[in-house]
Specification:
The protein has 225 residues and is mainly β. Helix content is 14%, strand content 47%. The chain has 4 helices and 19 strands. A hairpin with a 5-residue loop joins strand 1 (2-6) and strand 2 (12-16).
Length: 225
């Protein structure tokens, strides 16, 4: 298959299939447009157990698979918020991503559930304790809210991030939830109780917009009756 990223503010990825049988999958409702010669199949990819896990990690229970019936057919997947679309080849390793980062992937890419090592830390970390483990062979496309920032951490190097600004990281990176120190910082700092602590070595992908925080501000401005 071949792909092309289009658009700037609300981007999309157009995937053109080279041969019949090639396929892409996305969560239910993720497709934006397609040509003739592409069939759609809604299914619990990976079975009921994996489907339930994906639901808890922020994806839909059912996934939609788009398969080429002839060469040259095309399907497009659009982002849901303003930002970027990041293409990643997971053949060399794989990524751990926050819920909601997944847009679409080749059928040979696996989307599984990943848990933090400490249940309590993840549960109270602000974004839920369940992450997405993306692995296998082929291309996956991730949604970036706002602009993308990449950090290559050296062994032992640490970066602390608001959890909503984390997109994903390589599996060599250690992931922890850390409590903000000091009562004054907790109640007056405006950053919540927790930060995500990422320790190298490995690549970390961040985003400049925390969509949950943005949505919270919009809700706060809505008039109440």
């Amino acid at each position: 298959m071949q792909y092309k990223l289009i658009g700037n503010t609300m981007p999309a990825v157009e995937v053109t299939f080279d041969a019949p049988g090639e396929a892409m999958y996305t969560q239910s409702g993720g497709m934006a447009w397609m040509t003739e010669g592409v069939s759609m199949d809604s299914n619990m990819k990976g079975g009921f157990g994996k489907s339930i896990g994906r639901m808890f990690s922020g994806e839909s229970l059912f996934m939609a698979t788009y398969k080429a019936e002839r060469a040259g057919s095309m399907v497009a997947f659009a982002s849901t918020v303003a930002g970027e679309i990041l293409p990643v080849d997971v053949s060399a390793g794989g990524l751990i991503c926050q819920k909601g980062a997944f847009l679409c992937a080749e059928e040979t890419v696996n989307l599984n559930v990943a848990f933090t090592k400490k249940f309590s830390a993840g549960l109270f970390g602000g974004e839920g304790f369940i992450l997405q483990d993306i692995n296998g062979r082929g291309m996956v496309f991730l949604e970036i809210d706002g602009d993308k920032v990449e950090k290559n951490l050296a062994p032992g190097e640490v970066i602390k991030v608001d959890t909503g600004n984390v997109v994903g990281f390589e599996k060599t990176v250690k992931y922890e939830i850390e409590t903000v120190k000091g009562l004054k910082n907790i109640f007056l700092g405006g950053e919540g109780l927790f930060l995500t602590k990422l320790t190298g070595p490995g690549k970390v992908i961040l985003q400049t917009q925390n969509f949950n925080e943005f949505a919270g501000r919009i809700i706060g401005m809505m008039p109440s009756r």
